[in-house]
Amino acid sequence: MPHKPLYDITPFTALDYPDHLATIFWFAKCNMRCVYCYNRDIVFGEGKISEEEALAFLDSRVGLLEGVVLSGGEATLYNDLVAFCKKIKQLKFKIKLDTNGLKPETVQELVENKLVDYIALDYKAPKEKYFEITKDKHFDSFSKTLNFLIQKQFPFEVRTTVHSDLLRVEEINRIIKDLFKRGYRGTYYLQPFVFTENTIGKVKEEKTPFDASRLANELEVVWR
Prior knowledge:
The protein is an alpha/beta fold. Helix content is about 30%, strand content about 20%. It has an eight-stranded mixed β-sheet with strand order 1-2-3-4-5-6-7-8, covered by helices on one side. The longest helix is centred in the middle third of the chain and has 14 residues, at about 140-150. The protein is globular, with a radius of gyration of 17 Å. The N and C termini lie far apart (about 40 Å).
């Protein structure tokens, strides 16, 4: 029986891949348990769509779409991701990877082999709050991915989801200063937390006001 790595496909998006019309492939499973995450079904669920079905879908979109966003869950957990990207590239699509950066070797392999065109890297929290937010201890793996992408001058963006009771302005400023110190000069994207009942950590609605005027000015910060 063919392995089914994908939980779902969003046939069309004009928002998720900058300046490109794309489809989103949602990979099942994740190696984090972010407390504010509302994609429980994807994180804990099983894949329902095989590579073959995904590629057949892409084949039907040649000439209509330009790109594929690999999201999740966490796409880099899929063992055959490199081979899958090669097949997507044969169909002449651009590939954007959304990742938490915990698999630096996979990211490196994709970049070195020109199998990915753009990356959105989630900087979940400063080091001292990383485990509290993600329930994962591997900040150093994320750090490796970030340093690699900066040193490669690869086209990528860094983004953080902001729940103002979990990450205050001071903590976001610590991230900004860390990015700047490492040599990141791109835009830093902040995504406001959207409350749902179904988050993994059962987080409550935000109570702390977030004073964006106090954000550090080393980098361009954009809310979206």
